[in-house]
Amino acid sequence: MDGLSTTTLLILFIGLSTAAAMLLRAGCERIGTPPLVGFLLLGIGISTLDASVGVINVETEVGIELLAQLGLVALLFRVGLGLDPRRLLAKLPSASVIWLGNIAIAGLTGYAVAQWVLGLELIASLVIAVALTATSIGVVIPVWEEAGDLNDDAGTLTVDVAELDDISGIVLMALLFAVLPVLQDGEGNFWLSMGAAAGELVLLFTVFVTFCWLFARYLTPRLYRLLHRWERTPEHLLTVIALGAVIAGIAEVLGFSLAVGALFAGIVFSAYPEQVRSNGAYGLLYDFFTPYFFIAIGLHLDPTLILPAAGVGLVLLIAAVAGKLIGTYLPARLMTDRASAGLIAVSMVPRAEIAMIIAHQAYQLGPWALDAELYGAMAVVTLGTCLLTPPLLGRLLARSA
């Protein structure tokens, strides 16, 4: 491999990994497993191969990281695109009780286990707590659809709560990473510094949300009329994605992450989701880029630490499952019957995109925020919850039919 240029290595990596990712996607869908499981395992496999023969150099890693960031933007842009702020506001009175209960108990359970069972430091415990508040409705939606229950009361309530989880997970992530530098320094008046950091975040977040609202309210309708007049249908998508990338970049400039910006960029265009997905073009871009985010996570996992991380991962997996089951079931019983509450609770168990985004962002800050073993442990949580939940939910839905 020493005789190959960086460009050649990167092209080979893109070609081989994309082909492998598409085959894994098809295989995972055939056996009812979320494709992200296959992508994570692919990344781990490449990392193991690289540790043996050194197929990836430093320059190639830069290109892979760019692909991973584009995958992150594509992933959260799609999440935001599927959110309807008006519908969420209408459902807020019923869904908010379950949402608040499940993120509070899931977060507190994660923090308690990390701090007092695993003996982790404050910062790592907070990262894990925030990551475990999230869920992944995309893992269980196919199961609900196959059972024909997605549009029932329990199915729609599940989607509403999960969408609120997505938003709160990103907002909590933004708040966490705003105060982490203060926690790391630990100098001066702690609470004064914490308040100043949180206050600055709230101010900048208000500015950013206001900008997104104005863009969606006044510019987006005019933009679509202009695009329909001047561009062909596939070209609309590229312009919208380009503007979404600009919004994500603005969030990064303001001190947030690309993840926050990409989510709100999707929300900006959520009034016209079908036009963005026209001709299936967006689906192709999404399918191309998003695997690289999970492949990059697998690449960052040290193969020698996977087994040592399994023990910690198992403890966190138990905390992740218990936190969501208890935190969702108890408040859901106030809103619906026992069977529906159980279905909603099980549907909140998977941790995938948002949880790994939070872990990945913390891991990139350095070992003081999240070390390699804990990063691997969070991958175990993702793999475990995504593999266990769909078959269990499928049996519960069949039993309740």
From TrEMBL:
Q: Where in the cell is it found?
A: Membrane
Positions of transmembrane segments: 36-56, 63-83, 95-114, 126-144, 164-183, 190-216, 236-269, 305-327, 339-363, 375-398
In what residue span(s) does the Cation/H+ exchanger transmembrane domain sit? 21-397
Gene Ontology cellular component annotations, sorted alphabetically: membrane
Topology relative to the lipid bilayer, per the entry, is: Multi-pass membrane protein
The answer to keyword Ribosomal protein applying to this record is no
Keywords associated with the record: Antiport, Ion transport, Membrane, Transmembrane, Transmembrane helix, Transport
Query: Where is this protein primarily located?
Result: membrane
Q: Which molecular function GO terms apply here?
A: antiporter activity
**Which Pfam families would you find in this protein's record?**
Na_H_Exchanger
Any GO BP: proton transmembrane transport
Q: Which Gene3D superfamilies match?
A: 1.20.1530.20
UniProt xrefs under PANTHER family? CONSERVED INTEGRAL MEMBRANE TRANSPORT PROTEIN-RELATED, SODIUM/HYDROGEN EXCHANGER FAMILY/TRKA DOMAIN PROTEIN
The UniProt family comment states: Belongs to the monovalent cation:proton antiporter 2 (CPA2) transporter (TC 2.A.37) family.
Protein name according to UniProt? Kef-type K+ transport system, membrane component KefB
Q: Which organism is it from?
A: Modicisalibacter ilicicola DSM 19980
